[in-house]
Amino acid sequence: MKTLSSPAFLAFLAFLLSMGSIGTLVWLKKGDLWPKEPLKEERFTSVEFDPDASSWSAAETHSMDTLYKELKALRKSLLIQEEELQERERILDAGKRELARETQGLARRQNELKDKIQAYVADFERVSESEEKNLKKLSATFVNLSPAGAVELIKQYDKDKKLDQAVKILEFLKPDEIAVIFDEMMKEDDDESTELVQTITERLRVIHREPVAEN
Hints:
Low-confidence stretches: 209-215
Number of helices: 7
Distance between the termini: 201 Å
Structural class: mainly alpha
Strand content: under 5%
Largest sheet: none
Helix content: over 70%
């Protein structure tokens, strides 16, 4: 009893009680004194994930990120191809319009050429008709001339290098009328007259009006 009531024992007991109180207080406040470091969550900015991060594993997250990048690259490639197709369509449309213009221009030039040809033919026919009337008048003049006069006129045409004109006039004469003129020309009995008769005869034969002399 003397030990329990001694000052030394009471002091030791008070020390133990204070240490127990301090230990209990530290144990209760350990969360505040030594807070746990929070876990860092892995985030991938290229893919939106389920808010519940615990439902995706790291491998699944990586696969999703890879798939997203592949789809993005595919979309870019498709857009480029679409632009190329649109450019080709624009080029084709421009080519079609140019071809249409060229076709219209060609058709217009063909019509203009056709009109010019028709006008030329009409003018030629008018000239031919007028020339035929003049040739008929000149052939009547040949008939009214004496054979010697007709020969002199033909030689003058030949001298003026217009023998084709004389042949055209003779074409409207009858074969016996031409034969009389040739007989008169052959009376001169020279090479020039003989050659002239042969030339006129050949040219009349070409135009199917070979003269036939009467027996």
